[in-house]
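Session log. Operator J.P. requested a structure for one protein chain; no other inputs attached. Running the standard single-chain path with token output.
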Amino acid sequence: VQGARDAVAMAARRGQTEYLQVIQNWGAEAGARTNHLCLDLYDLPQVPHRVAEELGGAARFVIREGECPFCRLVRDEVSRPDRLVWQDEASVAFAPWASRSPFEVWIVPRHHDADFGRASDGEVTRTAEAIRNVLGRLAAALDGPPYNLVLHTAPLREHVDATYHWHWEIHPRLREIAGLELGTGLPVNPVSPEDAVEELLERAGEVGGSGR
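Structure written below.
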């Protein structure tokens, strides 16, 4: 995770691309080509569609509500623990309300910052701990499922400090993409986030010790 932070910071200084996508694929169903855990980095000439959607939605939310939507999420998810997977003083991990895939989990830092490249060493360490905790719960509850770990951070050439908030997303790959999703772009998720969290906490127990 620290290497990813350093790579994002370096890409921003060089200014030669629009976005650095950081991902980890585990398992053949998730697109992994080897059995080695590693982070893949991709220089992209445009901001990914999903991130662009988040940027636009976050900007509209700030105009309407006067605060970052991700900061609001952190506060709300902690106050309603039925979707909460993990928390410590640095970050919160939860199954988002409109989860696009079964057992999807977001890891969001409590400290507001749009750019992961500016994260401190302490923030990186605690984020890595949260990721390990969530992946451990998923492995224990779902027998080591294939998954995609994806970083969402600010575009390298845009100033979105007030409206965006870097975070990591974990998407276990538990089902095939069907025609409805391909044809409409609408995700189909048969598992509610509340049920997913209940199963993670009951079957996996308190993996990793501290936290929730």
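Operator note: The mean pLDDT is 91.
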